[in-house]
Structure formats: structure tokens, C-alpha cells
Amino acid sequence: FETLWFRPFRYLQVSVETADEPLELNSLTCRFTGFPLRRRGHVRSAGAPEIARIADIDWRTVRLCAHETFFDCPHYEQCQFVGDSRIQAVYHYLLADEDGLARKCLRDFHVARTPDGLTPSRSPSRRLQIIPTFSLLWIGMLHDFLRYRGDREFAGRLLPLGREILRWFADRRRGDGLLGPVPYAPFIDWTEPFDCGNAPQDADGGSATLTLLTAGACAWQADLEDRCGLAEAADGYRADAADLLAATRRSCLDEGAGLVADTASRTSCSVHAQVFAALFGLFDAPAGRKAVESAWGAE
User: C-alpha 58: how far from its chain's center?
Assistant: First the structure.
């Protein structure tokens, strides 16, 4: 007997009920399967032995999440989502000096793009699911690839999809410069204050988190354009990033508290908005750290 599809497990229970004849169990074996990663880098921390143990768990987890595609998890969905794959790809670059699955992942989403310019949330897949924030993270994944692997020819062939994605978001900007309502599932994190993990939005949009992530994607796209020899296009995306940051600052920043509200209505304030503000340039480093710590303490 062999299962039709591989399954991960921690414990294996065998229950046997016999009738007139006893059962003779000759062997019970399992086989490991996964992408053939070879460890070329190591994580060490003097005086913190638990870091080495965590690194070993990481290595096993990453191998279980790499087969013919990246997996978000080996036990349940076994899907190649952009949000998960971007993180896994960087791990492959740094710890295994490997980019085969990353190249395949970037191409899988490129060929599966929708007519309006977004990527599906997962690919390959029989069912279409749209998570617009994951399309922005695809731009980040391509930017990571060029940064860590340096293959401008490969990145240049895929770069136009980033323009299509950002055009989709540009079409949804409202008069004050923030994004209007973002449809489908603008997922950010499975955190309790967020509805099904989606970024807070007012009825007319105005999400600081989504606007800031779009600003970050514009900055990634600008760097991609620059590195691929397209300086004029890069300037336009830098200007877009600056405009989005300025709009967030005007509508969502509480100068007195030094915090960015989740939306222009300023009814809530999440750690996520502060993290994005720090990551994408609305705060300088000291102000960003203070904002994140303050919001974290409040939650």
C-alpha cells in the first residue's frame, strides 16, 4: 500500500483489526520527498544556541515547502502563493544559492496574469482567486530576484507585468491621492482586528496600508526599470511613490502621536500601518521604530 499523494506527518498511527488469520507486518517505511536543496549557507549566533535549533527547523520546513513548485504549507493547501513564495525564494538564494524554483514561480504568475493586469493569488491553480496585494508582492519578488541573482535579461522579460499591476492600482486612486476601494481580497495578515486578514478600508477606500504598499511597489518597479536601463520610466515610478507617501501623510498621519491611522477616517491604528510607513519611507528610522513600538504596545 502506498498513498496516492505525499503527506507530511509528525506521528504515524497504524490500526489493525484481524479476523481468522493473524497479520504479519513485514515492514513500515516512509520516504522523504522535496526539492533537492543543498545547504551552502549557515545561520550562527554566538551565545544563542536556540538560533541554531530554529535554523534547523527552518531548513526542514523550507525543504518540505519546495517540490515542483513552492508550497505555502506541506500539510494543507500545498499552493504556490506569491506572498509565501517571495519569502521562500530569498531563503533559497541566501542559504542554498539556488534560484530554479524562484524563476519558475515568477514565470508561473507571469503567464497566468489576468486580462486586467493582475496576477492570480496562486499559480498553477484550477480556480481563479485574486488577492491584489499579492500582485504588488510579485513586483517585490522580481525585485528581490534581480537584487540577489543579478540576471537583468530574465528580469527584463518579466518587468512589463509590474507596469500592468501598477496601472491597475493607479486607476483606483481617488482625488486626495489615496487608493479608493480595493476589491477582491486585499489581504495583509491574519490578525484579529482585520476582517478575514484584509486591510481596513472605509466605504470609499482610503486605506493607508494599501496605499503605502503600492508606494513600496512603485519604488521596487523604479529600481527594476533603472537596473534594466529604463531610467525615464524609473523616474515616473519614483514620482508615483512620492505622491502616494505624501497623500498618506496628509490624510492619515497624526503628527502629535507620530502614528499613521489605518484609514483617512482615523478610527483605528494598526502595527501594520506603522511597519509599512517605516519600510517605505514615510518615517525615518527613529520615528518608525517609535511608531511601531507605540502601536505594538497599544495592541
Answer: 17
